[in-house]
Amino acid sequence: MTDPAYFPPPHSARIGMSDVEQLKSQTRSLRSVDYRHGGGACRDAVVVRIYWAQQLLAAEASDHVRARLLTAVADLHNLAGWTSFDCGQVGAAYHHFDRALDFARHDEDLTTNIVYRRGRVHLHHGAPGDALAYFQRGAQTPLASSIMHANEAWAYARQARSDEALRALGRAQDAFAAADVRHAPDWARFHDETDLLSLTGIVHTELGDTATAIPALLTAVERLGPAMARSRTFCLIALATCHFLDGDLDEGKAVGSRAMSAAEDLRSERVWDRMRPMLRAAAAHGVSLR
């Protein structure tokens, strides 16, 4: 794989689809680094690429190439926002999401994805009501609808609105069943059967339904490999929390220790933030994971 930090300058004052495809390829590579190692491992490289993207925007191009370029630049800012969020840089995250929305005005599916990610920032920082306003925006494709409904379920679960959470989760599952996952755009490709299973486990963890959460999380942990190391760590955190809630202290400590070890290998502030409920659940039983 080409070094994601490497990029050549535009060849001339006029660009073509090869320049756009190169930008998309680099964004794809950097996104894979984010999944595997956390936003801190690639955020700077993403931001540096934005300067090159600005050179492309200043170049001449056909209308077709220009439209594709705007989508590519929007997704680059989308990734910059997400990696900033993962690093704990909320202000920078919002800045890049706003820029992404500016560039994605012509692309409804990408716009929906950016809106979803803004909602996740609110959800992470303790504002599920604000997050719901983003997740309930609506979507044009089944895959995007599944993402929105699954996260809507999570926000409802955070508010202890069990019935609404389960209905939203059902809508997410129905939408996913109708989705064309094989042709998913880069920004939505993460949402596969395993991701939906992970979210199912997390929603039921939030609701205190450990009997449903644990099997879902166990299966997700088994399926998630090194390429999705951060997602796997999130599942381990939720799984350990479930065991502590059940009073299964030995299993909780074992899984919690695995989560802590996995987090050490990631450059993600968000992972450590998500660790807090697990640590509180452990401490409530006199268990130390430090």
TrEMBL record:
InterPro entries: TPR-like_helical_dom_sf
SUPFAM superfamilies in UniProt: TPR-like (SSF48452)
Name this protein carries in UniProt: Tetratricopeptide repeat-containing protein
Species for this entry: Lentzea fradiae
